[in-house]
């Protein structure tokens, strides 16, 4: 018996909810990368910028947890965005050794342009699904997230 044949694998393994979620995420991420590339931005940079916009003052460690990436990955992204003038570090008001991240004016401009691209992608999805299914999908995905957190 070969090692990869030791345990049973369900015939419908690729039809599971988790794989459907992953296929959808791959498709969305690929389109985001393609559409953001002309702006000189990657999807990961957009995610970081929108997170800092939503919660100004996040630290690198907080961003790593939020984006589900390593602190080293965040540090690399932050360094690139800081070099472009999109982010600035400011000392934490109570913990001087901690650096908070804030968008610069250039960062807000870059984020506006990138967000317009993301809105177009989301509109494309919503048009394909229709308003009722789009709303329902969002609610179902929230339920999936809740179920996984409860596990």
From TrEMBL:
Membrane-spanning intervals of the chain: none
UniProt-listed GO biological process terms: response to stress
Residue stretches in coiled coil: none
GO molecular function, one term: DNA-binding transcription factor activity
SUPFAM superfamilies named among the record's database cross-references: Winged helix' DNA-binding domain
Residue span(s) of domain HTH marR-type: 14-146
Annotated InterPro entries: HTH_MarR-typ, MarR/SlyA-like, WH-like_DNA-bd_sf, WH_DNA-bd_sf
Taxonomic superkingdom: Bacteria
Protein name per its UniProtKB record: MarR family transcriptional regulator
